Amino acid sequence: MALLVDTGFIYALADRSDAWHGRAVAFLQQHPQAMLVPVTVVPEAAYLLRERLGAEAELSFARALARHELGVEELRRADWVRVEAILAAHPFLGLVDASVIAVAERLKCRELATTDRRHFGEFTPAHIPAFTLVP
Fold first, then answer.
1. CA separation for the pair 113, 131 (Å, rounded)
2. What is the pTM (predicted TM-score) of this model?
3. Which of 39, 83, 89, 125 is the most core-located residue (most Cβ within 10 A)?
């Protein structure tokens, strides 16, 4: 199973000054595996990379997607229904985080690569008692 990643993890990998950068890089070095990103994360990550790090960082991200270094998981109709239910029940979550959760539930992911301990740590997924959050 590929490692499901969110925006914060992608950003941490790109920004050497980010507090999570070292942990994110070390995790991937110690646990090399395919990474999978929900399609909803792509525009959010691209925006943050360009705004905070510049066009070259966004281009590197696009290059990683084009070369399939990051797999992109589309959302299905049932995922969107689950996103709606998650948002209705958990107003502290946003649409992108809810979509990551919906995809994780559908794929039965136990582990999420994220820097967002607060949101993902407070949520109880449908398929397990809690996500293992890495790095």
1. 10
2. 0.95
3. 83
